[in-house]
């Protein structure tokens, strides 16, 4: 349990069906867990907007600061916990979650937030009756998922949760079906003598794990949720002596045992993984920095603090990586590509236009192969990788080679004057901070662009 001082053991209660007893299960499990072990912090929040959790746990006169919405907006979870009734901590519900749904990029957001939430002990997450992106996040972050089923229809429904787990590479073993709202008066003849036996048999037959403990349908529980006082009462305090009381006790017992056997909850593993990822990204970045040529790839002069770096240049085999200065590249375009036979002064409108266009373009040089070994293709793409221009030039690798051939030779030259089987890409960079193009996310975007371009060149 040491790890759980900082990382919660997360239990998600989920089912696509409404009215199967999710919220009742989530709330009462929290209270029973707390009763089992006073020293164990137990927290709860809900992605639903019915405020049942708030009604159950809030203390009269308590000042509320923040809600689940703030958790999703990156407020550390610990700062949002409110000490509630029965010693259970809760994060107040919110009805502005639907608006936040768009900002959920993928299923790992909640896992990341819980990895840095600093919530100790056990955290229970109640979900809405669907498999939207919020629920998917709650499933991904969970050490244990409890799926209440009350009949065959809700069991059929949980197939989607299992499929989602398989798709994400998550372990099916962390899913447990819990038969809820079981009417014990219903008896069958034959092998499956009652509802719970029948449901369990079907669950096992489908390869689902089903808890031995089930929750009976009880008029008592119904009256605790719906009564003239408009209150919600816990089974722990108001249901003593009933079947559901002992069923919840045993479910809480099992849950606590499982939690204690978990030395590394997912929140901790996720945190570790993320730190490793950060480290990996940092190393990859420094690796790219170290691989950079120290001179401008057009003019060959050493780059210094004062150089006006404007382009990053990389061969498709990554053997050549470096920068090009702004003026150098414009001059190169003027003379080697547009073949304007004279120097254009800095303020010349044609030169300015070539410069401006170049800043919005990606250029690629591909030496000809096969039938045209003595040519080089010059391509211009826009920054999304749409082709704009292609021109073919003669390639001359003799000692008195021209500027374009010199550039090709300098960046794509290989063994004994042969060119490598590669192309060269020139991509504009931010002159203030050229190396930012080498930072993980930016670099990955550029590599995507490179692939897009390569697909078009080699059709
Ligand atoms: N064990 C139970 N016995 C009787 N009624 C129950 C039981 N569990 C839940 N209910 C009732 O069933 C309804 C749905 O329960 P709820 O927990 O809100 O389900 P969900 O969160 O899945 O929609 C509620 O009216 C609740 O009072
Ligand atoms: Mg509910």
Query: How many H/I helical runs?
Result: 17
Q: What strand order characterises the main sheet?
A: 3-4-2-5-1-6-7
Largest pleated sheet? 7 strands, mixed
- Element pattern in H and E: EHEHHEEHHEHEHHEHHHHHEEHHEEEHEH
User: Which residues sit in consecutive blocks of at least 5 with pLDDT less than 50?
Assistant: none
Q: Examine the secondary-structure arrangement and name the CATH architecture of the largest domain.
A: 3-Layer(aba) Sandwich
Helix content percent band: 25-40%
Ligands bound here? adenosine-5'-diphosphate, magnesium ion
Q: In terms of structural class, how would the helical and strand content be classed? A: alpha/beta
- Per CATH, the superfamily of the largest domain is P-loop containing nucleotide triphosphate hydrolases
Mean pLDDT: 92
Strand coverage percent: 15-25%
**How many angstroms separate the termini?**
58 Å
Name the overall outline: elongated
- Multimeric state: single chain
CATH fold field value of the largest domain: Rossmann fold
List keywords for this structure.
459 residues; alpha/beta; Rossmann fold; 7-stranded mixed β-sheet; 17 helices; binds adenosine-5'-diphosphate; binds magnesium ion
How are the SSEs ordered, and which strands pair?
Elements: E1 9-13, H1 22-36, E2 42-46, H2 52-57, H3 68-72, E3 82-83, E4 89-90, H4 97-100, H5 109-115, E5 122-126, H6 133-140, E6 144-149, H7 152-157, H8 159-168, E7 175-179, H9 195-205, H10 219-225, H11 235-238, H12 243-261, H13 266-290, E8 309-315, E9 321-325, H14 326-337, H15 349-359, E10 361-367, E11 375-382, E12 387-394, H16 403-412, E13 424-428, H17 440-457
Parallel strand pairs: 1-5, 1-6, 2-4, 2-5, 6-7
Antiparallel strand pairs: 3-4, 8-9, 8-13, 10-11, 10-13, 11-12
Helix pairs in contact: 1-12, 5-13, 14-15
């Amino acid at each position: 349990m040491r790890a759980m001082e900082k990382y919660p053991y997360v239990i998600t209660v989920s089912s696509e069906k409404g009215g199967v007893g999710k919220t009742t299960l989530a709330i009462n499990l929290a209270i029973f867990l707390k009763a089992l072990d006073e020293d164990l912090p137990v927290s709860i929040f809900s992605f639903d907007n019915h405020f049942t959790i708030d009604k159950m746990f809030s203390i009269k006169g308590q000042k509320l600061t923040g809600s689940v919405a703030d958790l999703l907006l990156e407020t550390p979870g610990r700062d949002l916990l409110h000490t509630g009734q029965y010693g259970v901590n809760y994060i107040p519900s919110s009805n502005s979650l639907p608006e936040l749904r768009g900002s959920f990029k993928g299923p790992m957001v909640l896992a990341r937030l819980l990895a840095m939430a600093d919530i100790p002990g056990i955290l229970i997450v109640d979900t809405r009756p669907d498999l939207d992106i919020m629920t998917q996040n709650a499933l991904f972050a969970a050490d244990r998922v409890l799926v209440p089923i009350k009949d065959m229809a809700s069991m059929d429904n949980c197939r989607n949760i299992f499929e989602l787990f398989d798709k994400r590479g998550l372990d099916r073993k962390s899913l447990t079906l819990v038969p809820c709202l079981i009417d014990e008066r219903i008896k069958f003849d034959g092998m499956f003598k009652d509802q719970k036996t029948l449901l369990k048999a079907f669950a096992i037959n489908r390869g689902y794990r089903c808890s031995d403990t089930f929750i009976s349908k009880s008029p008592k529980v119904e009256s605790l949720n719906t009564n003239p006082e408009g209150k919600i009462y816990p089974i722990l305090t108001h249901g003593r002596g009933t079947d559901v009381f002992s069923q919840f006790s045993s479910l809480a017992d099992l849950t606590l045992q499982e939690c204690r056997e978990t030395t590394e909850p997912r929140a901790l593993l996720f945190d570790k993984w993320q730190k490793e990822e950060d480290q990996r990204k940092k190393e990859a970045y420094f690796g790219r920095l170290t691989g950079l040529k120290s001179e401008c790839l057009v003019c060959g002069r050493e780059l210094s603090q004062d150089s006006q770096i404007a382009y990053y240049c990389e061969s498709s085999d990554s053997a050549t990586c470096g920068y090009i200065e702004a003026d150098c590249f414009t001059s190169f375009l003027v003379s080697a590509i547009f073949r304007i036979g004279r120097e254009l002064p800095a303020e010349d409108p044609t030169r300015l236009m070539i410069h401006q266009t170049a800043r919005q373009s990606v250029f690629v040089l591909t030496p000809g192969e096969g039938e045209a070994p003595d040519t080089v293709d010059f391509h211009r793409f826009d920054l999304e990788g749409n082709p704009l221009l292609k021109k073919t030039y003669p390639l001359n690798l003799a000692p008195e080679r021209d500027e374009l051939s010199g550039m090709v030779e300098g960046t794509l030259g290989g063994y004994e004057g042969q060119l490598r089987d590669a192309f060269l890409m020139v991509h504009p960079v931010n002159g203030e901070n050229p190396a930012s193009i080498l930072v993980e996310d930016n670099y990955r975007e550029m590599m995507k662009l490179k692939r897009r371009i390569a697909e078009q060149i080699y059709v």
